[in-house]
């Protein structure tokens, strides 16, 4: 298991949440909290960068779907970028790659 690392920054009007490590049952709450904090600053867009995520289970996928929903409700755009390996396969198998972009 790889510890989840989360870094949030503002780039222009967007809040960019960069995630690394395992996004799973044990760690998904931390990403959910980071997304909430990022949206509290009323960004134009929310970007979640998964380039350094090595594993993502159903709890992680649920947080990503929730992030999309929360951003939309807040009037912000949502973008998911950088998914590769197992996380990209999980997104594709569930069809969330089409929903989350």
TrEMBL record:
It comes from Actinomycetospora succinea. Belongs to the anti-sigma-factor antagonist family. InterPro entries: Anti-sigma_ant, STAS_dom, STAS_dom_sf. One of its GO terms (molecular function) is anti-sigma factor antagonist activity. This is Anti-sigma factor antagonist. Pfam families: STAS (PF01740). NCBIfam families: ant_ant_sig. It comes from the Bacteria. Residues 4-101 form the STAS domain.
């Amino acid at each position: 298991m790889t510890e989840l690392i989360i870094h949030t920054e503002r780039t222009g009007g967007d809040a960019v949440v960069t995630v690394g490590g395992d996004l799973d049952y044990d760690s998904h709450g931390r990403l959910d909290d980071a997304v909430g904090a990022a949206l509290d600053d009323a960004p134009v867009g929310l970007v979640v960068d998964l380039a350094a995520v090595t594993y993502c289970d159903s709890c992680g996928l649920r947080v990503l779907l929730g992030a999309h929903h929360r951003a939309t409700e807040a009037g912000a755009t949502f973008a998911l970028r950088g998914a590769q390996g197992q996380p990209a396969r999980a997104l594709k198998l569930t069809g969330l790659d089409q929903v989350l972009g």
